[in-house]
Amino acid sequence: MESAPLLRRRLPFSVVAKPSGAACNLDCDYCFFLSKELLYDVPRQQMSEETLERFVIEYLAASSDGDVTMLWQGGEPTLRGLAFFERLIDLCEAYRRPAQRVHHAVQTNATLITDEWAAFFAKNDVLVGVSIDGPEHLHDAYRTNKAKRGTYRMVERGWRTLQEHGVRCNVLCTVNAANQNHGREVYRHLRALGARYMQFIPIVERTEADLLAQAECGWRASDGTRILYTQSGQAVTSRSVDPMSYGRFLNEVFDEWLANDVGTVFVQDFDAALASLFGYPSVCVHSAECGLNFAMEFNGDVYACDHWVEPDWLVGNIMEDSVAELAETPVMRRFAEKKCDQLTAQCRACPYVQLCWGGCPKDRFVNSASGESGHNYLCAGYTEFYRHTLDTLTHMAWAIQDGGTAADAVVS
Fold first, then answer.
1. Model-level pTM?
2. pLDDT given at position 3
3. Minimal CA–CA distance to 156: which of 190, 183, 126?
4. Residue 272, Cα to own-chain centre: how many angstroms?
5. pLDDT number for residue 225
6. CA–CA separation, 197 and 336 (whole Å)
């Protein structure tokens, strides 16, 4: 173990680290991340302690003083075991600079959460994101286990255990073909569970037309093997959210939130739109540029983004390169140009462009109204959302600018 912190150029960056690779104890129908195991011919894809230590060293060396957050995802990260995360805490304490305060966030399906896990999270103030797609009949439509049985009750049990231990939690809810017409019902259910922090992620499973039939089977070929998901093709699976329905889903949630929960419940989609009104977008999807949001696999391989874990976007390996070196590779420079340099004419003329910035490049695979390629599949939904909410969000922004809160803009 090194006795002193490394000196590295400090960067504004994040890394989604995957201690158990793409491995998961569930088999959600829409989860193309599971197919990423095909990138490596290794039966047990788990991060070694050597890779973990190197990552901690490099991450902290490249991070600024103050609060530093490390993100742990998968697959299912808890499959790596509690001892791995206990080791993580020790390594961060050993390598952090005196002025650094290290925090951790874990995204989990919560089905493996026990009292021991929850006590660990509470003791170390780990922020835990739990994947829940709404009430049981909606959640279980696609979020199933290996036997293709619904998982809602297991997830709810894990959520309750986390709540009983006082763990800080938020909810990641996907918006898909099963729940897209139930925005109000989904939101109310999450509120009934006690969730105060939520984010709604649209499911867009794109594929080549000749692979669509196989993709409909959950990214498995007829012999049960997986098909590697890549960001290519103009077809989408039947599980994918309809663009307009996505916008209406968000609007239903917004209206319910506006009527009852402003100031007490925080929805990332609304917070991000507010931040964009101030010119400081808080999520990469609606930032003007991409870049410096890496994904790291179990073996230290670093990719340009969690949605682009595929061979063309492999940046390097943390065992060989510093974060600063990875950020300056030709691959990352090329990736950073994907977003701002590839807006369609329809995007550039849109009144909401400075809120949306064309959305994520992974979703830019349809034609615009004029027939230009590279337009965002979700455009109609984004337009519907901004059209419905912008006046209210603008009044909230004015209230905040005047020293108040968003709640001050709500008319009783």
1. 0.95
2. 44
3. 190
4. 14
5. 67
6. 29
